[in-house]
Amino acid sequence: MSQLDTFRKSKDSFFKNSSDSPLTDAQKRDFKGLFYFPENPQLHFEINIEELPEKQEIKMQTSSGDVQRYRRFGLLHFTVDGQAAVLTVYASEDGFFLPFADGLAGTETYGAGRYLEPQQLKNGKFLLDFNLAYNPYCAYNDLWSCPLTPAENHLKIPIRAGEKIFENHI
């Protein structure tokens, strides 16, 4: 079993059994696991970031109508299936945050987008692994409040990696 498979199995167990799970008790009864794309090594990047000279603060809307504050940190440039793409990485006191919506949003992936938490490596590059892309908790339960993906992070290209849409939303 790969490291990613182990991670996914652990996450499924958390969702099914933990009191901190975003699933309702009714959802947990029928829960058999999340849906994922197969692991795709071509969507695992170690790339340089184009750090923004001014770390502009933005207010990111949430699914409940609140706002959360982030700073625009930098831009990640990468290529998927021969198509160039750029995503903005945001920073907060909790670390780096990358919400994005891809060309599959609303059909195969969660319509409001998915999240990543890119990590800065010792060599200064960033680890961007779409195999770890996950749905926000509001994708499972409307009682959760989640940051909404800013327009600048909406991609037209499909990202066939990470979590798929949750089909058991009640």
Q: Mind explaining what this structure looks like?
A:
The chain has helices at 3-17, 25-30; strands spanning 44-47, 49-51, 57-61, 67-80, 83-92, 95-100, 114-116, 119-120, 126-129. It is an alpha+beta fold. The chain folds into two domains: 1-34; 35-153, no CATH class. Strand 4 and strand 5 form a beta hairpin. The longest helix is centred in the N-terminal third of the chain and has 15 residues, at 3-17.
Essential attributes:
alpha+beta; 12% helix; 6-stranded antiparallel beta sheet; 30% strand; 170 residues; 3-stranded antiparallel beta sheet; 2 domains
Compute the number of structural domains: 2
Q: Which structural class should the secondary elements be placed in? A: alpha+beta
Distance between the termini: 31 Å
One letter per element, helices H and strands E, the order comes to: HHEEEEEEEEE
Task: Report the principal-axis shape.
Answer: globular
Low-confidence stretches: none
Overall pLDDT confidence:
94
**How helix-rich are the residues, as a percent range?**
10-25%
- Strand content is 25-35%
- What is the radius of gyration? 16 Å
Beta strands, count: 9
Largest sheet: 6 strands, antiparallel
How many alpha or pi helices? Answer: 2
Summarize the entry for a quick read.
The protein is an alpha+beta fold and about 170 residues long. It contains 2 helices and 9 strands; from the N terminus they run ααβββββββββ. It folds into 2 domains: about 1-35; about 35-155, no CATH class.
